[in-house]
Amino acid sequence: MVLTEVPLLPVNIIQILSVFTCLLAVAMLHGEKRYTGVVLAFSVHALVMLFNLLEELRLTTNLILVTPALSLTSGPALYLFIRILLKPDRPMSMSDIWHFSLACIALFFTHHITVVLAVGALSQLTYLAVSLHMLIRYKRAIQERRSDPERLELSWLFRLLFILSFIIVAEVIRVNLQPYLPYQIRNQWYFTDQVVLLLLLTGLIVGLVRQSEVFSGLSEFEQNEKAPAHDSHDQAQSIFSELDDTIKQTQLFRTPRLALQDLANHTGLSVKDISWAINQGGRMSFADYINGLRINEVIQGAQASDRRALLDIALDAGFSSKSSFNAAFKKHTGLSPTQYLKGPES
């Protein structure tokens, strides 16, 4: 058997685990339109890890060196993963193949390993920056559309991508310092990078599986990217004033997880018009506006009654959890709820 003839190093075990993890993710997520990009990204990474393993075990000595060129596939795969996750109405098509054209060209220049790896690192960082930009736009749009944005902000995905950027930079440094580093340090560095990357992949799978219900509401975020073509600031203030009166009179703000679509259904206005009126007329995001009304309700309720628990008052005011209440309260007042309510007495 091949594996009995070729000794496996610890890093090879990590590579095998990475391939298995990626294939497991593909099996779990395959078949859903939104996860097409995710499946592609895991498939590409499995291929990269497989060729890394085969080349390090010297099982592909009669073939060209593939892994440097494959470094140019990771960036496009990440970009398509994020794009399709956020906007499944823009699925992968033949026009997306050009993202991988540079990797195909690089196959003919793999004898220039350092140059190809440098271009690969630049490609990864560029696509990573574009992916982060899409997530930032999404986060901003969610602030404008939801009163509970923290549930949908995908902060965990931000953190994973930032860790990935550090791994890419560390790999660039390692590759360039490789001729000058002792063998043991070089190998330990590479092993550490692979372990962190495996943990990153595992965290990504856990996040995707645990928040699968969240992604069903993401496809609308682009609808808020372009404001309607209104010219009058006075018109925005007028609409906002009417909205404000309606929301306060009907106490719509007490609806948990209130969204712009809920207001649109109640008022007959379009989602974009409501968002524009709150942003321009109220000079705040939808989330800040609704949570501000809720916080005022909590403060009044707490001052009127010493017997009710503060969390019960907050839940009645529309907050969906203790953490979202505390975060919104501190954002608006600069203090925790307890500090704010006890402040004047102390």
Q: What does it look like?
A:
The longest helix has 33 residues, at 113-145. Helix content is 70%, strand content 0%. The relative contact order is 0.08. The protein starts with a helix and ends with a helix. By secondary structure, it is an all-alpha fold.
Oligomer: single chain
Helix content: 55-70%
End-to-end C-alpha gap: 76 Å
The radius of gyration is 26 Å
Number of helices: 16
Q: Which characteristics define this entry?
A:
346 residues; mainly alpha; Arc Repressor Mutant, subunit A; 70% helix; elongated
Structure summary:
It contains 16 helices and no strands. The chain is mainly alpha-helical.
Reconstruct the topology from this structure.
Elements: H1 2-5, H2 10-29, H3 36-56, H4 67-86, H5 101-106, H6 113-145, H7 155-177, H8 183-210, H9 212-215, H10 233-250, H11 260-267, H12 271-281, H13 286-304, H14 310-317, H15 322-333, H16 337-342
